[in-house]
Automatic annotation (TrEMBL):
<feature type="signal peptide">
    <location>
        <begin position="1"/>
        <end position="22"/>
    </location>
</feature>
<keyword id="KW-0732">Signal</keyword>
<protein>
    <recommendedName>
        <fullName>Lipoprotein</fullName>
    </recommendedName>
</protein>
Amino acid sequence: MKNTNTLRFTYLALCVALTACGGGNDGSSGTTDTTTSPPTTAQTAQGVFVDAPVAGLHYVSGNLSGTTDAAGHFNYVPGQPVTFSVGGVTIGSATGQAIVTPLALVPNATDVTNDTVTNIGAFLQSLDSGGNPGSSIEISAASVAALNNTQLNFAQTPAAFAADPAVVSAIQAAAPQKTLVSPAAAQAHMQSQNMCLFAGQWQFTHADRADDIFVVNISEVNGSFSSGLITRSDGTQAYLNGSVLYVPAMQKWMFTASATLRAPNATIGTVDFLTGSFTGADWSTAIGTYDESDPTSPFGHAWSATRLSPAPACAAAATTPIVPQGAVGYSDYHYNAQGMTPSMATIVDNGVGVAGSLNLGAQAITVAPQPDGGFLWGNPVQYGMNFASLTSDPNLPAASMVCMAANVGDGTDGLKSTDVLIAQTATKVTAATDLAGVTFSQYWEDCRRDGAPAATPAPVHSSIAVDASGNATITIAGQPMITLTADKLTTLLSGAPAAAVGLPGNVWFQAYRLVSGGRTQFAMVEHGVFTGNTNRGYVGAWLQ
């Protein structure tokens, strides 16, 4: 008989080492402060406004004021509120902290579906002049000037906000070529950006047990995470799961998790983890402590966590991908992982033509370059496909699919696609208009075009065609044609599940721009899990 014991712990988020204290001539007031330096007795700190990082917002905190820089940074006086505005439009106020999102501006809002939060997000995203709101929102000086005498009411339903004559006039004046971003697209964008602050692969370690090492992927779709089952030296087993959430009363992003222990023929009491914090300028580490509710429990002291993957794509520091020196990094989309948060995979790359080892989860795969510029997968991979080559090393793939021997009922012709790899030098595409005019004429799954057996190919090849306005037409053999508006496609690309735009199944999509050899190509990863059995799923790739 096995008994379980759940360890609960909570990390208080965003007590981040972005804070700088001081004044006078020590430079701590930051480059975005346009007023005179505060008295030497004052303290200042720096935060970032995220929906993605927003540049061009005016802010006021105590005797500080300025404009957020290209990375969304603002300065604030600890303990004082910060008020943000665009021209005459007051966006909202929040207690000064390391990260402020639209959620923090709305008291008692618990998620991005709050009407006021949705309207704030839609307004800011509509003002973007940079063309890539997935990485940053840039508000131009012209937009600010156009709104100097404008006031808006964000506290209304999204439908009423969109129909409000003042809002319509404001968008026409500040962003003449645009319309207000739809509520669904605004919510999907904010959710992906919020989770992006924490998304990626993390390693949790328990101070009392050297073999308590849990590796999880925090989803940038919904902030959930879970680990596989680990076995300790004493024979007990454990797994970790949890999620990131926003706590309005504290104006803090937090995450809670439980480590469930399995011990044969033993009863272990419950240990509650109560507090913790993130550290590191790029939210790269976290620590947590807890109270022992069972004095006989062998557990105690601290947990810690370290980010294993690169800094989140939504952070300004992540514009240049971070990979281990002497290695090529990949975003690894695994067939039965939840959502679209990839794990990090690297291959040692000591020079063109040098073989290396690629780690896919617990699998270490040998990759041997070939004379024709391709590469060969070693055991236990049964088949590998190279969709494009890296300019830096043509023997390594820019995008690839890995297939292994299939389980019964899975896969095609004895193969199942287990991983799709996208080089970290690729950039995510989160706006439908960035795919305008692009046709994905090939879909690959199980290392077969259309996922069909070689003996019985699909009568019509699957495709996704995006028109000049960003609207998409999806053609799949044997199924009715599907059309998506540009707003719906943007919602998908921003991390929302397909169900959010009316498509069936637990399916997600992520598009990438690949620049190699002077050419620009696009690829899209499709991933789904089975309803009721998330241990089973599939991963495919759409290509031009």
